[in-house]
Amino acid sequence: DAKTTQPNSMESNEEEPVHLPCNHSTISGTDYIHWYRQLPSQGPEYVIHGLTSNVNNRMASLAIAEDRKSSTLILHRATLRDAAVYYCIPYNYGQNFVFGPGTRLSVLP
Amino acid sequence: DTEVTQTPKHLVMGMTNKKSLKCEQHMGHRAMYWYKQKAKKPPELMFVYSYEKLSINESVPSRFSPECPNSSLLNLHLHALQPEDSALYLCASSQDLRTNTEAFFGQGTRLTVV
């Protein structure tokens, strides 16, 4: 399983964009990059995943570096509901969803 | 229906009790997982089932016994637990271990061992 490095914590103001970085320098060429988040007192929730190209969905955007050694989850307008722990997980079929420590995002009103 | 349902939501049990946690999904997923999460820590993988067969056991003590009676249901049988086993137990499912699709998690069972 590829190792990941994320900041322990980040802060954002409400309605501003948030860029959550993740380093995954040991990722293999076929690993997808998954992002999950865990709101307080809830189970983890899928956010987005991608392989090489940047990806967008209704929740967020995922920017993947050209060398794939890092990625950035972008929340375009943070809301109070986005306060959570965000995990990036390199994943390929046959592997497991292994969680690192993640980034605790605080959103200030 | 994109839900993974776990019951009960909360459970308090004594060290000599036997109890079971239940997890159910109706998305047709063939991979199911149990995770354990201590406070302020990330989830830790315990077991993985693929097509109702145990695929991975992450060196979990035998006082935790998983069971997958059918493709929709996953149980975790608990016996002679210790207070340090108190944690949030999360169930998850994904389409198949052979695909790169996302996992869906339940809300967890908060277990307290007294």
Summarize the structure.
Chain A is mainly beta. Chain A has strands at residues 9-13, 18-23, 32-38, 45-50, 55-56, 61-64, 70-75, 84-91, 103-108. The mean pLDDT of chain A is 93.
**Which residues of chain B sit in consecutive blocks of at least 5 with pLDDT less than 50?**
none
What percentage of amino acids of chain A are in beta strands?
over 45%
Estimate the global geometry of chain B from the Cα principal axes: globular
Could you give the order of strands across the largest sheet of chain A? 1-9-8-3-4
Give the chain pair forming the largest contact, with residue counts: A-B, 23 and 23 residues
Distance between the termini of chain B: 36 Å
Largest sheet of chain A: 5 strands, mixed
Radius of gyration of chain A: 13 Å
Q: Please work out how many helical segments of chain A DSSP would assign.
A: 0
Keywords:
heterodimer, A: 109 residues, mainly beta, five-stranded mixed sheet, four-stranded antiparallel sheet, 0% helix, 46% strand, B: 114 residues, seven-stranded mixed sheet, globular
Report on this model:
The complex is a heterodimer of chains A (109) and B (114). Chain A is mainly beta and 109 residues long. Chain A has strands spanning 9-13, 18-23, 32-38, 45-50, 55-56, 61-64, 70-75, 84-91, 103-108. Chain A is globular, with a radius of gyration of 13 Å. The model of chain A has no long low-confidence stretch (mean pLDDT 93). With 114 residues, chain B is mostly beta strands. Chain B has strands at 4-7, 10-13, 18-25, 31-37, 44-50, 53-57, 64-70, 73-79, 87-94, 103-105, 109-113. In chain B, the strands form two sheets. In chain B, strands 2, 4, 5, 6, 9, 10 and 11 form a seven-stranded mixed beta sheet that branches. Chain B has a four-stranded antiparallel beta sheet with strand order 1-3-8-7, with no helix packed on it. In chain B, a hairpin with a 2-residue loop joins β5 and β6. Chain B is globular, with a radius of gyration of 13 Å. The A-B interface holds A 32, 34, 36, 42-46, 49, 51, 85, 87, 91-94, 96-102 and B 4, 33, 42-45, 48, 56, 90, 92, 94, 96-100, 102-108.
